[in-house]
Structure formats: structure tokens, C-alpha cells
Amino acid sequence: MAVIPAGRILVAVSGGPDSTALLLALHEAGRDIVAAHFDHALREGSDAVAGEVANLCEGIGVPLISERRDEPIPKGSLQAAARTLRYAFLERARLKSGAEVVAIAHSADDLVESVVLHLLRGCGIAGFRGMPAQRGRYVRPFLNVWRREVRLFLQDRGIVAHEDPANLDTRFARVRARLLILPALERDRPGITRRFHAAALAAAQWQQAAEQAAAGRLTRRRLERMPAPVAAQALRQLYVRAGGAQPGLSRSHIEAMRRLVRPGPGGRGVDLPGGLRFRIVGELMQVIPSQQGPQAPPRLEVRSCAGCDDREAVHLRGGLQLHLGHRRPGLRMRPAGGRGTRKLQDIFVDARVPREDRDAWPLVFAGPRLAWVPGYAVDADLASLPGEPAQHVTLTPMPVASSQKVVRLETPRGDLI
Fold first, then answer.
1. pTM passes above 0.85
2. For 187, 209, 215, 287, which has the most beta carbons within 10 A of its beta carbon?
3. Is the dihedral of CA 238, 244, 247, 248 positive or negative?
4. CB 57: neighbour CB atoms within 10 A?
5. How far from 373 is each of 118, 218, 304, 347, CA to CA, in Å?
């Protein structure tokens, strides 16, 4: 059995052989454990299985947290829906028990079956490892333990565990892999099951190395220098940190995200599962909600100034009648520090302001003329010159495209925008 971190362990117990053996093994090892059983209420007699789990826990003196499903099964795949409900229960039970980790009784056979299923669907290194030994607070200590070893363990203790009839139902892809595909491969290539297992463990080591190399702040330049597997993992980590499910990104998502990193027009993005969106702002890569919540409108603050180094302000000529507005067709300005006039659209594109931010980006006008694009550019003809009366202009709050890298341009006064 693999090493499990110290502290209290919540053991997921279905009542089947694998989870029963895991519960007993951890109990015999003297670990601080709490059992958790979720009755999906999908088959007649499931309440009897819950009773058997309760009797076992009572007999060995292990606390039990149990629930029975009382809500409709979500539409779609039955197995996927049941898994979603089960993991939601396990998280509730973990918090209630104060456990550090949740132990799941997936075995070496489960690992190989997962590898076969992932290969049939098409997968990379992360998929070829089958399933990780640890993901967050969930650990799988039995990935090196085979089912026949589990049965011998239970037989030595006189324990007869519940056998789920679903494990023989070939309507399910995992059951077909277990009862049809793997036996056929084993007949043709004896020993291939163990070779799959060894390859999965090696892939897990490669995946772990990729995860470690991908850790840290992610910028365009850093991603471009990463090997492809490491870059893919870095993007997955970015997605998960933003609240995305794991696993949740397909290869097509990863490829679309990597294409966005290459040179091209600014403000592009990639829609991702879970209502999230990947975009690049300056050098930073971000995953944000596709729909942004309402934000308080900014306030324009203007006062006289003899000169200061406030980096959040711009200094405009005195006497200008300033007001806030938003972009409209045909807006242009002559940015300080540049040459000639430019379209506002081109300023946004070059600065990689995301498309979804452009219409709401506050602009400061002097009469009908665009004077300041906060964070990006000030009109050279309207910026004050050294020694002349100036208006100190700020916005509260200052617009920021989610931690973007602000483009700063020199004004005639030497102020930075």
C-alpha cells in the first residue's frame, strides 16, 4: 500500500471488496480513520449494502458518515452523474470529519482499465497514467495492489464483501474493458496487463515532472520556451486555479490556447468549459469568467496641479472641459511618444486589450476629442507642457484588465501613464 500523508483519513467505502479491504488495512495499520458511504439509491437493495457497511464499521470501531441520495440524478451519463454526486458527498464528509485526505480504493486493475479507456478515446501523458496516485486531497493507496490480492486479504479475514452487479454490465465502457478487451489482449500478448501497469506508473512520473516544471507565474515568453507537454500542463494548471474542473480541458482546448500565444491580433480569447475564458493581456495569460459581474462605474477626478509623479494620473492642459465616455466608431488620437494619429481600435489591439473589455473601457474626452485612454495613451496635443497650468486627472477606480501589464507612454511632461 502506498504512503498516505499523516493525519485523519476519510475512507470512501462502497461496500465492495476493494474499499472494504482498504478500510480494514488502514484500521489494522493504526491510522486515524473515518468511513464514508454514499447510497446512490439506484438499485433495489442498496439500503441493505449501506447496512452492511454500518455493521462492519461498528464492529471494528470506526466512525461512519453516510448519506442516501434524495435528489434526481442529473441528465447525461449515469456513471458520470453518480460520480459527481459521490464526490460532492465525500467533500462534505471530509469537512465534517476534519480529515486531511480522502482515500479511494482504486486498484492496479482499475488503473490499467483507465489506461485502456483513455487510449481508446485518445490521450497524452496525463491520460496514459490512468489516474494519479494523488490529486488534491484525494489519494489512491491501492494502485499497486491487484484485485486477486484484495480477495486473498479478505478471505484470510473471513470477510465477504458486496459484489456490485453493475461490475458485470457490459453496457458500461469500463466493464467492457475489464471483461472483453483486456482478456483478449492478454490472450494474444500474455503479460500485457502488467506492462500497461508499469507504463502507467512511468507516465505518472513524467506527468509529475511536467507539473513541477510548469509551476509558477505564467507569461507568454515563458510558455513559448516550454516543451509541449510542459506547456500543456501549465495551461491546465492555469485553468484549474481559476476554478476549472480537473480534468476538464481536451487536447483541442490546449491547442487553441497555445495558438493564441503565437503572434497575432490582440484581444483574442478561447472559450473553455465551465463558463471560463482564456485570454492574453500584455505578457500575462489569464483564465477568467466568460461573463463578468457588474462593476461600479469609475469617477473622473480633476484638480489643479503644479507637477507631480503620480503614476495613476495624467496631466492635461488647463481649461479643458473633461468628461467620461466610451468608444464609438471613428475615434482617433495622436498618442504622446508616438508618431502621427492612430485609431483607438489599433491602440487597443496593440496593447492586447481583450475584446470583451473594450466597449466598457472608460475614456476621457475634452469636448468631442479623445484625450486619454486610461492605462494606455494620452493625446500629445492635449497633454500639458512643463511649466504651464495643468489638470491632474485620475479615475477611481482605475480600470485594470485583470492584472494586465499596462503599456506606459512618455508624455511631454515626463509623466508615465
1. no
2. 287
3. negative
4. 22
5. 49, 27, 20, 9
Most confident listed range (98-107, 246-255, 369-378): 98-107
Q: What's phi and psi for 30, nearest 5 deg?
A: 80, 20
Beta-carbon contacts of 332 under 8 Å, excluding residues fewer than 6 positions away, are: 341, 342, 343, 344, 370
What are the residue ranges spanned by the domains of the chain? 9-200, 215-289, 299-396
Q: Which helix (H) or strand (E) holds 48?
A: helix 46-60
Which one, of 78, 96, 97, lies nearest residue 40 by Cα? Answer: 78
Over residues 349-401, the pLDDT tens digits come to: 887 777 777 888 899 999 999 999 988 899 999 998 877 888 999 988 776 55
**Helix, coil or strand: residue 220:** helix
Q: Please give the full DSSP string across 226-252, using - where no structure is assigned.
A: S-HHHHHHHHHHHHHHTT--SS---HH
What's the burial of 280, exposed, middle or buried (CB within 10 Å: 0-12/13-18/19+)?
buried
10 forms bridges with which residues in the sheet? 34, 102
CATH class in words for 215-289 = alpha beta
> Cα–Cα distance between 401 and 379 in angstroms, integer?
21
End-to-end CA distance of the chain: 60
pLDDT at 295: 62
Which run of H or E residues covers position 184? helix 182-188
User: Which residues make beta-bridge pairs with 162?
Assistant: none
Q: Which CATH number fits domain 9-200: 3.30.565.10, 1.10.150.130, 3.40.50.620, 3.40.390.10?
A: 3.40.50.620
Query: For 258-266, what is the mean pLDDT?
Result: 73
Rounded Cα–Cα distance for residues 101 and 33 (Å) = 10
Instruction: Say if CB 299 and CB 394 are below 8 A apart.
Output: no
Please report the pLDDT score of residue 282 as a whole number: 67
